[in-house]
Each structure stands twice: as C-alpha cells, then as structure tokens.
Amino acid sequence: MVRLLISVEGHSEYKFIKEVIVPHLAGLGIFVFVQNMKGKIGLDKIETKLNGLICSYDYITTLYDFYGFKKKGLGGNETKESLEDKIKNKIKETQRHKIIPYIQMYEFEALLFSDSEKMADGLNTNKNWIDDILNKFGNIETINNSKETAPSKRIGGHCTYIKTTHAPNILKKIGLTEIRKKCQGFDAWLTHLESLGTI
Length: 199
Known about the structure:
The chain is an alpha/beta fold.
C-alpha cells in the first residue's frame, strides 16, 4: 500500500479529491490522504507545510491553481513548469524524490468545461455561453488567466456559482474519463499518480 498525500488549494479541491480521486486510486493500492491549504498558496507556505508532512508519506503531490498562486518573490514570467520546479526545490533535499508538484492551468474551474451539458445542468444555466467559450479555446486548460477572463470569472458572469458546492458536484457527474479526455495536463498528472501503485 502506497501512502500518498495530496495537498490542495482549498475546500472545492478537497471535496473533489475525497469524492472522486481517493476511490479511484484506492483501487490501485494507493491510500490517499488530503491536506487543505485553505488558500493563499505561496512558496513560503508550501515550504513550511509540506516539509513538516513529507516524512510521514511515501509521496506528496499538489493541486494548486496557477492563477491563485501568490506571485510575491516570483518573476514576471513564471510558467506552470517553473512554479512546479520551485515547489520541488522547496522540499528538503533528502525528501525531494517524494514530491510530485502539480499546478492546474489556469484554475481548477477549467475542469468543469470538460462537458458543457453537465456543466450547464449543474449550474442551472443554458450551455450556449459555455459552448462559445469552448469554441475559442482548443484546450480548455488554456482558458486564460486575467482577472476578468479566468474560468471562475467567466462562470460567475453568467450564473450563480458557489465554488465549494457546484465544482465538486459537477465534476463528479462528468467523471474522470471525460475530464481526462479534455484536460491533458490533468490527465498526465493522474497517470503519474496511478503509476505509483505499480512501483
């Protein structure tokens, strides 16, 4: 049995991991614990929290938004890859082989766009505006990250959106198979986690 800690940004991600990812990975012999960072993700907070936990697990991975990441002390040209490298380098060297950093582009809400019909149904809205957004982006993980056009802002501009309720419920209905088809970054991360069960 592999002991994996998934450190998540907030309560929505926590519920999604507990309800969808935990049972999926359990079938592969991976016992998942979830740690809620409760927002305000930054390198200092990651360094303190994860270094205090990593000795208790076989692996630790992360699920943090690129858009929600505090940029204090970071360069202006940070990328998903550069942030993941910085997270890895914040872990003490003797434990660094156990960290699997993952940054979701650009927000957790991007995953909701995996199925416009189920997303619209879960939000009690029509799916025309969702399809319009999907037609503009070949890859839903590239739905952009400005303050006005991040996925959560786009959703909130069209309907009532309660992140901690709507996001986990909609993603559960969509299911991992469809999410993975539409979100290559997320799929690659989950594939890596699945492989831990065979190591």
